[in-house]
Amino acid sequence: MSSSYISEEVRARVKAQAKNQCGYCRSLQKYVLGILEIEHIIPKALGGTDDEENLWLSCRLCNAFKGVQTHGQDPVTNRQVKLFNPRRQKWLRHFTWTEDGTYIVGLTACGRASVTALQLNNAYAVTVRQAWVSAGWHPPEEI
Predict the structure, then answer these.
(1) CA 69 to chain centre
(2) Among the four 1, 51, 54, 131, which has the fewest Cβ within 10 Å?
């Protein structure tokens, strides 16, 4: 747990800006067991700040897999690239869903590296998405 203090006002604004949805795997708060977390896009351990422009909403799995990473390896080009920044980049530019809505596919070097680094298609996430698809809750609409 971080020793920094992020005010309730800033937390509320970030949640609203993120539309109560994980910036990486797009899981909606209303379907996630547990509270979506305020995460540091550039981790504090690497010089990131508590400024609102460095904060976004993340599910526990994505936040844990991301850790202090800011870069990842694109499995196609083998280049190190910056990970997806949900505050500054558009999800649909870098990712799409498989036809069945259960896997996230990286469309760009950034997207592919982020899928790998954050393990966006880990077995748990895919199993949960399969249930959400069956219930008609997934994939989320992108606006």
Answers:
(1) 13
(2) 1
H/E element, 37: strand 37-40
Q: How far is CA 59 from CA 47, 64, 75, 76, in A?
A: 22, 9, 24, 27
**Which residue type occupies 93?**
R
Q: From CA 57, how far away is CA 11, in angstroms rounded? A: 9
Residues 24, 61: Cα–Cα separation, whole Å: 10
Q: Is residue 73 within 8 Å of residue 116, measured between CB atoms? A: yes
pLDDT of the residue at 4: 67
Span 90-105, average pLDDT: 97
**Cβ pair 15, 37 in contact under 8 A:** no
pLDDT of 2 > 50? The answer is no
